[in-house]
Amino acid sequence: MLSWLSDFIDSVAPSATVRRQHPLHRFSLATVGVVFVLFSTVIIAYDMIFPAQQSTSSLRVGSFIEQDIRAPFNITYPSEVLTEQNRQTAAERLAPIYAPPDPATTRQQVTLLQQILDFIDNIRRDPFGTPEQKMLDLQAITALRLEMEVITGILALDETTWRAVGGEAINILERVMREPIREGEVSAVAEQLPLQVATRFDQRTINVIVALVKDVLRPNRFVNVEASNNARQEVMNAVQPESRNFAQGQIVVARDTRLDAVGYEALERLGLLAVTDRRAQNILRAFLTSVFSVVLIGLYLTRFSDPAYMRTRFLAVLTIIFLLYLLSARLFAGSDPPYYIYPASGLALLLVAITKPEIAVIGTLIQGLMIGSIANNSLEITTLVIGGGMMGALLLRRTERLNSYFVMGVVVAITNISIAALFNLEQINNGAASTLTILFLYAVINGVLSAMVALVGLYVLTFTLNLPTSLKLVELSQPSQPLLQRFLQEAPGTYQHSLQVANLCEQAANAVGANAQLIRVAALYHDIGKMLNPAFFVENQVDALNPHDALNDPYRSASIIIGHVTEGERLAKQYRLPVRVRDFILEHHGTTKVGYFYTWAVTQAGDTESVDADQFTYPGPKPQSRETAIIMLADSCESTVRARKPANKQEISDIVDVIFEQRMRDGQLAEANLTLRDLDMTRDIFIEMLQAVFHPRINYPSATTAGRVQIEKELPRDSVLLTSTTATSSKTKTMELPFVVDDSVERRSEIEMSDPPPVYATRKQPSEIRPLVTLDDDDAPLQEVPPLRRTQRLNHVEDDNLPDKNNDKPAH
Q: CA-to-CA distance for 159 and 154, rounded, in angstroms?
C-alpha cells in the first residue's frame, strides 16, 4: 500500500523525462481540459444551475408571497425604485413658482363687470318689460349666477342706490384684484368680500354687491410652468441614489405580503427572477469563459512548453489547486465588500513556488477573468485579482526565503490599495471617505492573508506530493541529510566531486537563467549510486589500486559503472528524493558509452560487430532540460580536468572545448533546449571556475643537489598504460583512445595492448608523458622553486620526510 502511494505521488510530481509520459498523453491532457471546463462552468454559474430557493420567475408586482424569500448571497446595490420615489417626493414638496400678478386680468374683469352693470341698468330702465320678463333677462346673464333673492333686490333698488351699488362693486373688484390671487385662492378671497363693502349699505344691498363681484373674481397670478419644471428637475437631480443591502440569508420579501416594486427590484438584482432564457445565457457565458481559459492555457503551454511541467498528473494537480481556489472565491462571494479581503494573490505566489513565474502569470490572468465573471462581470474585481497576483508573480524571486513571502504580502497590499483608490476616489466627494478607509484596511489584510495562504499551501504541497519546491530543496541541501552523510562516509571522493560539480552548475545556471537552486541540489545527489561500489570509481581509489584490473572483464566493469545511474535512481527513490531530482541521476550521462571498457571489449573481440554496444551505453535518457544538460557538461569537465591536472588556463580551455564539442556531436544536447549563447556562457564560467580550483601548485622538494632543489613532478593519473603479452607473440599493439571520460579510470592517453589479455597496469616514466597542449611562455608552469630559508624552530622538528639537516643550509 505504501509502495503504491509512493509511486502515485512520484507520478504526480513534475519531471522533464519525456519517456515516462503515458502513451495517451495528449488524450489525458484533453481529459484534464474537459474536467476543468465542466467544473469551472459549474462554479461560475452555480447560482443559475442550483437556485438557492424555489422558482420565483413567475412573480410579478402585486403577486402574493407564500413563503419568505431570502438573499442567496450578500449584495449591495443602488435601488432605482427607491431613488425615483424619493425624487418624486422631493419634487412634490417643492412649491410651484408663480409669475407676478397680471394687470391685464384685472382690467379685463373690471371691464366685464362694467358691461354686466350696463346690461342690468338697461333691463331696469326697460319701460315695456314686465317684472317677470326682467327677472328672466337677469337670469340669462351667463357671467353671473344670481339667486332669485339677489335678482329681486336688484330690481327693487331705486336709481340712486343702484348707481351706488354699481360704483361700489367696481371699486371692490379693482381693490381686491390689485392683490395677487393664485389659483385656488379665489374662494377664500370671495369669502372676504362682505368685509370690503362700505358700511353705509344695508345687508340686502351688501348681498347684491357681493353677488355681482364674486362671479367675476378671477386669479391674477399664475404658475410659471417652465421655471417650476426647472426647479423640480434640480431638486430631483439633487436627490442621492438610495442603496439597499442584504446579508446572505436575510429575508428580502416576507411571506403573506404583496410583492411591491421595491421588492420586485430586489429579487431581480439577486437574480431570483431570471427566466429560463436568461439562466441559459448566464450558463452559456460561464461555459464560454471556461473554454476561452482552457484555449488560452493550451496555447501558452504550446508556445512556451516546458517538459518538466507537462506531465498529465502534475497538470491535474495544478487544475485541482486552481479549481479549489475558484470554489473558495465562489463561497467568498457573499463577503462585504466582495473580494477586497479575499486572498486571491495567494494562488500566484503558490504557483511561483511550485512551478515558475510564467505559469503563475497565466494562472493569475485566468483567475481574474473567472472571479470577475462570478462578481457580476465586475471590472473592479477583475483588476483587483489580476493586479495583485501579477505583482506577486513577477516580483517573488527567492522562494526559499520565508521573508520573501511577507515582502510580497506588502507589495500585494500596496497594489490592492492603489486599485481601491482608482475605482473609489469619488467616494471622498460623496462624503463616504470612511468607506474608502475600510477598503484600504481590507486591502492590507488581503496582502497578509495572501502571503500566509501561499506559505501554508507550499508547505502542504511540498510534503504531501514530494514536490521540489524551495522548502524541499533547502531541506535536501543541508549536509546533515542522512543520505548526504552516508554519501560522505562511504564515497568521500565522489562526494567532493559532487560539491565541485554543484558549484559549477549553480554559477552556470544563474548565468543562463536556469533553476540554480534545483541544479545545485541535484548535483549533490547525482552520483549517489557510486556508494554501492565506491572502490570501482577512481576518485575513491587509494594507493592506485584499481579493482577493475583484478576483475579483468570489460563487460562486468561497464555494468558496474553504468549501474551507478540505475542504482542511484533506486536509492534516491528509497530516500524519497523528488522525481525532478531523480531525473538528474538518470540524465547526467545521457546515452553516452563507457568508452574505455567498450574499446577494451572491442580489442578483445578483434572486431566492433562482435561487441554489443548497448551493454556499454548508459540507459539515459538524454538531458531533457537545460539543468540536466548543464550537469552533464559540468560532471564531464570537472572529472576530466581533475584527472589530467592541466598546468594552465589554456589546457583547461582545450579540455572544456573538446567535451562540449563531443557532447554536441553525439547529440546529447539535442533535447535540452540550450542555445549556443547558453553554451558559450556555460563554457566561459566552467573555464574560470576550473582555473581557480585546479591552478598549478608547487611541489615541495624531497632532495637537494649542490644547493639546488630537484623538483619531482607528480605523475598524472591519466598516464596509465595497459599492456599485455602472449607466449606466441612479442609484438606490441598500441591504440589511441578517443577523448572520453569514464567513471572507472577517468582518462587514458594511450593503451598499449596485445591479443589476448590478461591485463596488468604499469605507469609511464615521466619522460614518456606527452603534453596535452603546447605551452606558451606565458602559460608555462614554474620550472624550479628555490628552497625557503628554514627557521630555527623548523630545524628542531622531527620529520622523516625532511632532508638531512646538513643539507638545509642555504646556498650562497
A: 10
